Fold this sequence. Notes:
- By secondary structure, the chain is an alpha+beta fold.
- The chain folds into 2 domains: about 10-75 and about 245-320, GIY-YIG endonuclease, CATH 3.40.1440.10; about 105-235, no CATH class.
- The chain has helices at about 10-15, 45-50, 60-65, 80-90, 140-155, 165-175, 180-190, 195-215, 220-235, 280-285, 290-320, and strands at about 25-30, 35-40, 70-75, 105-115, 120-125, 130-140, 250-255, 255-265, 265-275.
- The strands form 3 sheets. Strands 2-1-3 form a 3-stranded antiparallel beta sheet. Strands 5-4-6 form a 3-stranded antiparallel beta sheet.
- Helix 5 crosses helix 9 and helix 8 runs antiparallel to helix 9 (about 220-235).
- The chain is elongated.
Amino acid sequence: MTDDLGAPADPREAVRRLPLEPGVYRFRDASGRVLYLGRAVSLRRRVASYWGDLRDRRHLAPMVARIARLEAVACDSPHEAAWLERNLLRARRPPWNRAPDGGQEVEVWIGLRESARSPGLTVGHQPAPGTRNFGPYLGGRQVRLAVSGLNRVLPLGYAGDLEGTRGDLARVRGVTTADRAQLAAKVAAVLDRVPEPVASARAALCARRDAASAELAFELAGRLQAEVEALDWVTGPQRVTRPGAGDCDAHGWADGLLVRFAIRDGCLTGWAQRACAGPAARRYLDQTPADWTGFAARNAALAAQLRRGCDATWAAARHRGQG
């Protein structure tokens, strides 16, 4: 499906129609070429910053002057936005994107070991053989912080046949081998993003952070806050990178605009939009897998909003030129 961009316009009106949600955005010039693709924790705030003080991004000023069209995809978490940016940049890197291979974050996996000899969590660049693996995740530091937080509140690593110092520490924590299966199940539920276990682990970390702050242990409180944020990163919704989940095309339609997302081997790697009448769009919508319907529909509505913003500004500019 080719992109249908319509007339070039001042995209700043479209910026005001962006949500305050995480997501990915891209800029096109008047000929339709993609200039730049980036991600944001808040789409509206991040994109608006290009028309403010660029500070350490002054090299982007020539690009900003050429922006004629703005497009965006809203995501369910900053982690999902990071993955989507990476996937799209790996497929094609626009001329103003400098980071190689889709960004700087490292791709990692969390391994869950349940053996009596060495239970606990590991972080590695590949799925560990003979281990239950979760991921992939982006951001090695974030993932290690999340694992550190989980080890505090769900000390699976001390629920084995331990001797010496580690055995003493297990006794101090009141953890025995009898707790291993239950702790492993709770850790797995958190990494599987089951809401109640996630909320419980997060609440336990927050309680420790608040206690440390009350005792004026601000360095520890800062570390615990970083672990809370990292746990949010790891457990946030993330659907755009699920290796092995197969191939499909997901379509959404709104106000005469059809948006297509190409999912290959479980990774969303392509995104395009074009004008399309409702009846013609129906066959594409009917072929969209049910688990992608909401994502595609929401982003089709966003695409239509952004197009209306740009087109309204363009029409006003034409009217002023004719007056």
